[in-house]
Please model this.
Amino acid sequence: MEGIKHIIFDLGNVILNIDYQLTIDAFEALGVEDFGSHFSKQKQSNFMDDLETGLVGEYEFVDYAKPFCKEGTTAKEIIDAWNALLLDIPIRRLQILQQLQLDYDMFLLSNTNIIHEVAYNKIVKETCGYENLNYFFDKVYLSHRIGMRKPNAEAFEIILKEHNLKPKHTLFIDDSIQHIEAANKLGIQTIHIKDDMCMEEDIFKPKA
Model:
């Protein structure tokens, strides 16, 4: 952490535990064939990109998904399947964020959509009582609200420019290698959280 003054966090599998396979399984149970080809950690379809950049919303998503589902599938079943990947937020991670706020500028940069935002805010409320994650950061940047998503350089640059951050003093933490590589190209320091890692055990560990 030497020289680091600012930290940009990803959300999924950094703060919020997620499992993409649960959503894939849920949609396949609704009759969608090969849903993983439309959405995965590594890639997704153009429609999913539009969802994550705010060009389409909840109703358009339901209308898009329905023809792929078995007859009689309801909007609620589609939304529930889409949210199936969202798991929990360990309270220790929120405590770490609070501790880091004392010494660092803190930002959240997440590729997400309005449906997931509503759902994970419910998880936040159940976990700590806060309405959303804004309490833990100087500012939250969600792709569907800013109209751009990682790994596009613009998604990082908007934070750097708005807050006059120098990349060499900025740390970015994410679980997707393509996002890490994009940040590195801008000179941002990075930590890649791999599948067998978690923030509270492998990065911000208690002092012995």
Summary: The radius of gyration is 17 Å. The chain has a mean pLDDT of 94. The chain has ten helices and five strands. The first helix runs from residue 20 to 29.
